[in-house]
Specification:
Blueprint lengths: L9 H13 L2 H8 L3 H15 L4 E4 L2 E4 L1 H24 L6 E7 L1 H8 L2 H4 L6 E7 L13 E4 L8 E9 L1 E6 L4 H4 L3 E4 L7 H10 L3 E5 L2 H9 L5 E4 H4 L5 E3 L9 E8 L6 H16 L1 H4 L7
Parallel strand pairs: 3-4, 3-5, 8-9
Antiparallel strand pairs: 1-2, 5-12, 6-12, 7-10, 7-11
Helix pairs in contact: 1-2, 1-3, 1-4, 2-3
């Protein structure tokens, strides 16, 4: 399929893998360190080199074409070979990597508990893959995932570790948009979440501002720009926020720890997965919205 006859670089394949596994340019910016515009240009250049489109572009993200699926399979083989080469070069010391994927809020929460998940004496590295879109564990894009539902794919294994509730929050000062009863919503890829859609459906005519990043929305709410929905483990942990209503029943989700059926038996994956499960279970009341401040 290579129309140009030039060698395909490993750097280009790595970028392609991130975009394919994360489902779009925006999510891949965090793992690649490149801007969405730069990623877009690199993907387009790779498509020209291959001679076929690799993705179908849409507002909801990037979907692989048939050629893209074929390249993904082959690029994953190259990735495994490159990792083996690095392990050989370094004598396999410190090169056992465990990749943990979760949404923005959950990644942030688990990252604050890194001391319970990882120790330098473990001889491994832990990598966080933060993405609101589902990272494909079945294709080894991550080793461990924290998900809102039981996995249905035959090559995945899951254990339920808790429940997550959501509620409306405001800043502590009844000023600006809060006093006027305005809301702060999400836009872009972040606007596809269930909580963002619920807010739009119930209060779309009173949304006074939006952000394409959940953390910036929290800062706006804390500053008094309006009300918004957050997971209770986020809102109840932030002293700048006040929960103003009971958790929203329709938004309650399960919390599952998901691993690949085969990879879960790797000692390092099992070790980190057990530690993550312990952290989530220890904080189960917070995730259920039962540790509300007075």
């Amino acid at each position: 399929m290579d129309a140009s006859g030039a060698d395909i670089s490993w750097d280009d394949l790595r970028l392609f893998l991130d975009v394919a596994r994360l489902g779009g340019l925006s999510a891949a910016t965090a793992t690649t360190g490149l801007s969405a515009a730069t990623l877009g240009r690199r993907v387009t250049a790779l498509e020209r080199q291959i001679g076929e489109p690799l993705f179908v572009r849409s507002q909801s993200g990037y979907q692989l074409t048939g050629a893209g699926e074929q390249l993904l399979e082959r690029a994953a083989d190259v990735e495994a070979a490159m990792r083996g080469l690095v392990r050989w070069r370094n004598g396999n010391v410190g090169e056992r990597i465990v990749r943990l994927s979760a949404g923005s809020w959950t990644s942030h929460f688990v990252a604050t508990a890194i001391g319970a998940l990882w120790n330098v004496e473990d001889g491994i590295r832990v990598e966080f893959l933060t993405a609101d879109a589902k990272v494909d564990i079945g294709r080894r894009a991550a080793d461990i995932g924290i998900r809102s539902r039981r996995p249905t794919e035959p090559n995945l294994a899951g254990q339920r570790v808790g429940t997550v509730t959501y509620a409306l929050y405001s800043g502590r000062k009844l000023i600006n948009g809060v006093a006027a009863g305005m809301f702060i919503g999400l836009t872009g890829e972040a606007g596809n979440s269930a909580s963002a859609r619920w807010l739009m459906a119930h209060n779309g005519d009173r949304i006074g501002g939006r952000g394409n990043d959940v953390h910036s929305v929290r800062e706006m709410v804390a500053a008094g720009a309006g009300l918004s929905i957050f997971p209770c483990f986020v809102g109840d942990s932030d002293p700048r926020l006040v929960r103003i209503a009971q958790p929203i029943t329709e938004l309650e989700t399960e919390q599952w720890l998901v691993t690949h059926h085969e990879e879960r038996h790797r000692p390092e994956v099992r070790m980190v997965a057990d530690r993550v499960a312990a952290v989530l279970r220890e904080n189960a009341p917070l995730f259920r919205g039962e540790l509300r401040r007075p």
